[in-house]
Specification:
mainly alpha, globular, 6 helices, single chain
C-alpha cells in the first residue's frame, strides 16, 4: 500500500510540474490578465487542488484551492467592470512563483515556501474579504 502512495505522489508531482509550466505560459510577460486567462488559471489551480487532495497533501490542497479561488475572484472583478490594481496582480504572480516549487521532489513540496505561502494566502484573503482590487 505504501508503494502505491509513493507512485501516486510521484505522479502528482509530475502532473503538478506540467500544470505549473502551463500556468507560467498563461501569464508569461503579463502585468494584467484577461478573463479568459484567469479562467485558465482557475482551471489549472483547481485541478492541482484535486490532485493534492487525492494524494493527501493538505498544505498544497489548501494552497491550490486558495489560488483557484483568487483567480476566480479576479475574473469576476473584471467581469463586473472593476479595475484591478497592481498589488492584486502581484499577489497572483507571486502565488504562481511559489506554486512552482510544487513540481520538485516530494519533500520539497511539503517544506519549501510554506511560510511564504501562508503569508501570501493571508494577503489574498485580505484582498478578497475587503473587496479591494
Amino acid at each position: 500500500m505504501e508503494e502505491m502512495s509513493e507512485v501516486l505522489a510521484q505522479a502528482f508531482c509530475e502532473d503538478c510540474a506540467k500544470r505549473m509550466q502551463r500556468v507560467v505560459t498563461i501569464i508569461h510577460g503579463g502585468t494584467t490578465l484577461s478573463r479568459l486567462q484567469l479562467d485558465q488559471l482557475h482551471q489549472e489551480f483547481d485541478t492541482m487542488f484535486g490532485g493534492a487532495r487525492a494524494v493527501h497533501l493538505p498544505e498544497l490542497e489548501h494552497y491550490f484551492r486558495s489560488m483557484a479561488r483568487y483567480a476566480r475572484y479576479l475574473r469576476n472583478c473584471l467581469k463586473d467592470g472593476h479595475e484591478i490594481d497592481s498589488a492584486a496582480w502581484q499577489c497572483l504572480f507571486k502565488g504562481v512563483k511559489l506554486g512552482q516549487c510544487c513540481g520538485n521532489e516530494m519533500s520539497d513540496c511539503l517544506r519549501h515556501c510554506n511560510s511564504e505561502r501562508s503569508r501570501l494566502l493571508q494577503e489574498i484573503e485580505n484582498i478578497i474579504s475587503s473587496g479591494d482590487v
